[in-house]
Amino acid sequence: MRTPSFDEIETFLRIDGWTQDRSTGHEFYEKVLTNGETFRSHTSFAGKKTMSPGRFKAILADQLRVSEAEFWEALRTMEPVTRPSPLPESAPKSLPNWLRVALRNECGSSEEEISLLTEEEARHRLAERRSTPVGSDVRG
């Protein structure tokens, strides 16, 4: 699976009519649909950097709420996505950010490893790590 760079994500957001909300270590964007539903996303300043396939699928499902085909079609045609957009059935639900951060910092898990976990598996891994005595090198 080809994954986009953060520059390509940002280009999609601009094509799809998102507005820049704020800028910190990332660029934050927001899109308000006609029904009042609000989507939020952000891009990294590391614009050329790409992401894992799991992370891309999570961004599509949780932030952009479009299919992979719609994402690439918008970039190809420079036309926004028609809303509402049906989500792909196989799109995984992304883990809460606090859980992703804890898995990276406390368990030493990579983004690739994290992207393969269900929320239940991730919580179990973190609970196991937190119940391991300090100084132990056992990973869950």
Query: What is the typical, i.e. mean, pLDDT?
Result: 83
Q: Provide the CATH superfamily of the largest domain.
A: Hypothetical protein
Gyration radius from CA atoms, angstroms: 17 Å
Percent of residues in helices = 40-55%
Highest-level CATH class of the largest domain: Alpha Beta
CATH fold name of the largest domain:
Metal Transport, Frataxin, Chain A
The CATH architecture of the largest domain can be given as 2-Layer Sandwich
Count of DSSP-assigned helices = 6
Give an overview in words.
The protein has six helices and three strands; from the N terminus they run αβββααααα. With 140 residues, the protein is of the alpha+beta class. Strands 1-2-3 form a three-stranded antiparallel β-sheet. α1 (6-15) crosses α3 and α4 (97-107) runs parallel beside α6.
